[in-house]
Hints:
The chain has six helices and 16 strands. The protein has helices at 31-36, 41-51, 62-74, 92-98, 149-159, 213-217, and strands at 5-8, 23-25, 53-55, 81-84, 100-105, 115-116, 119-121, 134-140, 160-169, 172-173, 179-180, 182-184, 190-192, 208-211, 222-228, 237-242. Strand 6 (115-116) and strand 7 form a beta hairpin. The two termini are 27 Å apart. Zinc ion binds at residues 15, 17-18, 20, 55, 57-58, 60.
Amino acid sequence: MSRTHRFCRIDRKGCVHCGCRRFEQEAVIDDRLAATWELSPRERRWFDRREGHRCRDCGMSRRVRMLLWTLRRVCPGPDPEILHLNETNALGPALERMGRVTQTVHRPDRPPGARIGAAWNQDMTRLSFAEGRFDLAVHSETLEHLADYGRALAEVRRVLKPGGLQVYTVPLLHARTTRRRMRPGASGRLEPCLPPSHHGDAEFPVVWEFGGDFIRRRAASIQAVYFDNYWRNRTVFAVVEAKAG
Length: 245
Ligand SMILES: [Zn+2]
């Protein structure tokens, strides 16, 4: 086991956001996704409990509660400058209470850096923010949709202050090796090399299915990986990467 692994129980005192102790469980992994991802019944159950176990008051899924628990754990002092990339469902109000939040969305049809509602249009692999601006960055379930996720992680690191942290989640099965579902074709556009797989109907297609090697390969940047209830479900975790101070 990696020396970066840390173990916790995020729901010990109720929902980490609102304190509610009432949760509901819904099956959210559909047959098509389970088939393309080749999930075993146990793996499918793990992801259902990660995505479909929600607080009845605030609606946060277990994955988002894991992210919030970790952000609170590592938050560097009062009133941090927070970069929230690509809008994580239900996380926004909790972040607003933690510090000053800069929110981004990614709309390839709109100019980079444009204001869209309360957010800025940003491609995570080419951020328009100045170097060293943020204390804390957060993103969730984004990297698997990016051809060059390593560049995205490096870009987020660039805009962090020295000693700043990025906290994120990725869908990952530790016993597997990472594989591509899409790769750049001759034209440079991404083309499927396995049948297309989507998380939800309208979402971007999956480019990467991450395995345990993802965490090993990023060991030099990873400060900690926090797991909720590791022995029952190893898919519920958040990664903390640090920018050298
Ligand atoms: Zn709640």
